[in-house]
Design brief:
With 370 residues, the protein is α/β, with parallel strands linked by helices. The protein contains 13 helices and 13 strands. The strands form two sheets. Strands 6, 7, 8, 9, 10, 11 and 12 form a seven-stranded mixed β-sheet that branches. Strands 1, 2, 3, 4, 5 and 13 form a six-stranded mixed β-sheet that branches.
């Protein structure tokens, strides 16, 4: 019996340590005079080379600099991209993530390559995701139809690029089986194009996208155009495709505006099960400090009134909705207000609030980490 009593203090110490290591249990005064709950948040991003890791890092850094109701520590984590992020949100391995809205759309419905519905919610819609095929100028590839029989990099393994690449190819008369699909990260894609291991790659990201900039500084690039009638057909057929223009001069060798596609906006997502008060504070912090996020990466400029509550086909988290309603950002009419917001975003690509049309074009070309 005496031995049992001797063990009790040790058990109490172990229990206290376990509580201290949990994701949300303790509280502290963070300097604001308000007792804040401690919270450890992991944000899933994507492989190095695209915009997701940089944008996710910017959001995490700004959130760590601004704490009120929650004394949180936010860590941006590299992942394989949207599909892994969605699965890990559902499993509780991540609290926040960046995703491609097209992939999120299919995930919530259990369609495409998804075998079940995923219960995820939107927090903030950001920049459009403009992606395109590029090839070396000496490859002989001048059109998407020319990709038949070629070795084409279609994104990292498990990232989900096929969800929007396959319909693009099909509209241009190229079946998925007509190409040899190669998996690689965006930075790895540039290496493989450079050494001839691949003939073309599907790349994109918030302007400027590091991988495309790297490619244009390494070899002469062909920016493979969409057939205009096919581009318009894709926009009509699929809700997640929208027109987007890459301005001339953004990349070396791009001498005229490139008429491209938004293949699904970048957005911040979470699991439906996350507490409303936590997601309310996350949303509030992102919105109130959006200028700081934009200062760290141009994609942050898309955190504006026209984009942030845009309907991407999945529900917003109730905590986010509550903040947007209080801030006067939530559309008053689901049918009218939201449609108007979408139309404006397509017209100007998401304003940087400076009135600079070139900056507005650049905002339209956003992220392809998926």
């Amino acid at each position: 019996m005496a031995r049992i009593y001797q063990l009790i203090p040790c058990l109490m110490i172990v229990a206290a340590a376990m509580i201290g290591c949990s994701k949300q249990d303790s509280s502290s005064d963070n300097g604001t005079g308000v007792t804040a709950k401690k919270q450890f948040l992991s944000m899933g991003t994507a492989p190095v080379g695209g915009a997701f890791p940089v944008v996710g890092g910017a959001i995490a850094e700004v959130m760590n600099d601004h704490k009120e109701a929650f004394d949180w520590k936010v860590q941006a984590k590299g992942t394989k991209g949207s599909q892994e992020n969605i699965r890990r949100l559902q499993q509780g391995d991540l609290e926040l993530a960046l995703s491609n809205a097209a992939i999120s759309y299919f995930a919530t419905r259990g369609e495409g390559t998804w075998t079940k519905d995923y219960d995820i919610r939107a927090i903030a819609t950001m920049a459009p995701n403009v992606a395109l095929f590029i090839a070396r100028a000496d490859s002989g590839i001048e059109s998407i139809a020319d990709l038949k029989g070629k070795r084409v990099i279609t994104g990292p393994a498990g990232a989900g690029f096929q969800m929007f690449i396959e319909p693009i190819l099909a509209e241009h008369g190229v079946a998925w089986d007509d190409i040899t699909s190669i998996n690689a990260t965006q930075s790895g894609s540039v290496d493989q194009l450079g050494d001839g291991s691949a003939d073309a790659a599907f790349l994109g990201g918030a302007v400027p996208t590091g991988s495309i900039t790297q490619a244009t500084s390494t070899f002469t690039v062909n920016f493979i155009p969409f057939d205009e009638d096919k581009r318009q057909a894709l926009i009509e057929k699929y809700a997640f495709f929208h027109p987007a223009t890459i301005p001339a001069g953004i990349y070396k060798g791009l001498d005229s505006d490139f008429q491209g596609l938004n293949v699904g906006s970048m957005h911040v997502i979470t699991a439906a099960a996350q507490p409303d008060d936590l997601i309310y504070e996350v949303t509030k912090t992102i919105w109130n400090n959006r200028a700081e996020i934009a200062g760290k990466h141009p994609a942050g400029k898309a955190l504006n009134e026209k984009n942030i509550t845009r309907d991407t086909g999945i529900d917003y988290h109730p905590g986010a909705v509550r903040f947007y309603q209080e801030a006067g950002l939530w559309p008053t009419s689901e049918a009218g207000g939201q449609a108007e917001a979408d139309g404006e975003a397509e017209a100007d690509g998401g304003s940087d609030e400076s009135g600079n049309p070139e900056a507005e074009k650049a905002d339209a070309t956003a992220t392809s980490d998926s």
